[in-house]
Design goal:
alpha/beta; 8-stranded parallel sheet; 14 helices; 13% strand; binds zinc ion
């Protein structure tokens, strides 16, 4: 019955005139930013928690520019509990927009990360680093990227990296046991065969699926090649919203409705893993309360 209610709610949110298949279980949003222009602008805490709750999102990887956004989520223990949302905090490398393009050459970023890790959050210790961007994969070989990958490996922190497939090889060479979460599974859309080869080569590599070119086709269902890959590697993928600008917050519920649509094209156990269980397993979360 709960499943039917959730399905009906999802369809209402989508404004769908015709019934479309929809995954109705919990979602772990593995790529969420709560940046300053969101929390000091149109999306205060009650707004974003309401959006998560209405979307059936029961846990989030929070990483924000600056880290204050993540701390405000972590500090709001009563509100997040009331919304049924578990906060998994990551240290963002960016204090401001300038850091996007220069972090890999800036040793003060490593110092900032160390300070944040030592301080932790009200929701517990940080569990990962990132998201970070490498627009030129050669910078994956710089000292800051190497230090952070090795730090993550030592402390068993996950790393959320927005990089190309070449940089995956370079980053993993620094610290082969690091749990690397590939943001967008390659926003430039490397071929499925290349993604598959990297998953085989690096057993601790995970793929996050927001913005992934080629994932879905007309009608919002999975493309044939992605359906095959996600079914074969259903323990290696995660759903994300990537709320990098406020427009992603204002469309948060429809982003999650879109994810529920393509998840429904998978065998139910595979959909459940990608939507919830993989993230819950990585960070040791219990089953969500009903
Ligand atoms: Zn992002």
């Amino acid at each position: 019955m709960r499943g039917l209610i959730a399905l009906a709610a999802t369809l209402l949110l989508a404004g769908a005139a015709v019934a479309q298949p929809s995954y109705s279980g919990p979602i772990f949003d593995a790529h969420l930013h709560y940046n300053d222009e969101a929390y000091s602008g149109p999306h205060p805490l009650a707004d974003v928690l309401g959006r998560m709750q209405r979307s059936g999102v029961r846990a989030i990887v929070a990483n924000s520019r600056p880290n204050d956004g993540t701390k405000s989520l972590a500090n709001a223990r009563e509100q997040t509990q009331a919304a049924g949302v578990t906060v998994v905090p990551f240290v963002r490398l960016y204090r401001n927009r300038a850091d996007y393009g220069g972090w890999f050459a800036d040793p003060t970023i490593v110092e900032m990360v160390q300070r944040e890790l030592a301080a932790g959050t009200a929701a517990g210790p940080y569990r990962g680093l990132g998201e970070f961007h490498l627009y030129d994969s050669a910078n994956a070989n710089g000292p800051v990227a190497r230090q952070l990958m090795q730090l993550a490996q030592e402390r068993e922190l996950a790393v959320l990296a927005h990089v190309d497939d070449t940089a995956i090889d370079l980053l993993m060479a620094h610290a082969p046991n690091t749990r690397l979460i590939w943001a967008h599974t390659g926003i430039g859309g490397p071929p499925v065969a290349r993604v598959r080869a990297l998953l085989v080569k690096y057993p601790k590599l995970m793929g996050e699926l927001s913005y992934r070119p080629g994932l879905t086709g007309a009608g919002g269902g999975l493309s044939a090649e992605w359906k095959a890959l996600l079914t074969e590697f259903s323990d290696r993928f995660l759903v994300g919203s990537d709320t990098w600008v406020n427009g992603r917050w204002s469309s948060y519920e429809s982003l999650m409705t879109e994810a529920r649509r393509w998840l429904a094209d998978l065998p139910p156990a595979a959909a459940q893993r990608i939507a919830w269980e993989n993230g819950a397993r990585l960070f040791g979360l219990p089953a969500p309360r009903r």
